[in-house]
Write a structure and sequence with these properties.
By secondary structure, the protein is an alpha/beta fold. Helices cover 42% and strands 20% of the residues. Helix 2 packs parallel to helix 3, helix 7 packs across helix 8 and helix 7 packs across helix 9.
Length: 230
């Protein structure tokens, strides 16, 4: 996985020392990191950057972590992300309240950085299983990121790096309609500026490879929207 396509973690905390500590350790663990210092900034960052995981502190200025979580989960970008609430509130009622607002996980302060990274990875295994080395199967297509092998109906297929990442995105979210812009962000990275027609070219190459051994085209074009698999 290239740095540009590594999972993005948004860290939301109003304490500069905590932001610096978590950012450094997450980057060291191989993640891309974005930061926000209050709840309103967090909601905007999710909409603009589409992170894979949000580490959201409960006590925030301008907009509480709870309200930020509600607003984040009301958006398509937020529903696609794992929100991990971070709080010094350790009572069961507080955990329930946090999870009821839409949070996917809950970490109690004080915490160890190792625990935070483990929770981030655990949530990513659900959202982006390929990044965690998990093999995927959709229909008769199987992708194994550990061996970099793709098969269809048992026949080996040879994909280039871009087509492999493109197929992984489709297979991680079967049925999801991906816009060209979303595929550019996921497969090429947000910092790479290329024409959206590049997506069409690579989807065409991927289709050709997938259908080389026979069978129907597993990728469908959704007119006016983008592409989906399954």
């Amino acid at each position: 996985m290239s740095d540009a396509t590594a999972p993005l973690v948004l860290v939301v905390d109003d304490e500069p020392a905590q932001l610096a500590l978590l950012s450094y350790n997450l980057k060291t663990a191989g993640f891309r990191v974005a930061t926000a210092k209050d709840g309103e900034e967090a909601v905007l960052a999710v909409a603009e950057q589409g992170p894979d995981v949000v580490l959201l502190d409960w006590m925030l200025p301008r907009l509480s972590g709870l309200e930020a979580c509600r607003q984040i989960k009301a958006t398509a970008e937020g529903r696609a992300a794992a929100v991990i609430m971070v709080s010094a509130r350790s009572e069961e009622s507080d955990r329930v309240r946090g999870l009821d607002t839409g949070a996917d996980d809950y970490i109690v302060k004080p915490y160890s950085v190792a625990e935070v990274i483990a929770r981030v990875r655990a949530n990513l295994r659900r959202l982006r299983p390929v990044s965690a080395g998990q093999a995927l199967t959709v229909g008769d297509v199987r992708l194994d990121p550990d061996t970099y092998r793709v098969t269809r109906a048992g026949e080996s297929l040879h994909l280039g790096p871009t087509e492999f990442r493109l197929l992984a995105a489709f297979m991680e979210r079967p049925g999801k309609v991906w816009t060209r812009e979303a595929l550019l962000d996921r497969v090429w990275g947000r910092d790479i500026y290329i024409d959206t027609r590049t997506v069409d070219v690579h989807v065409g190459r991927l289709r050709k490879i997938l259908c080389a051994t026979g069978g129907d085209d597993p990728i469908r074009t959704v007119r006016g929207a983008g592409y989906a698999m399954g």
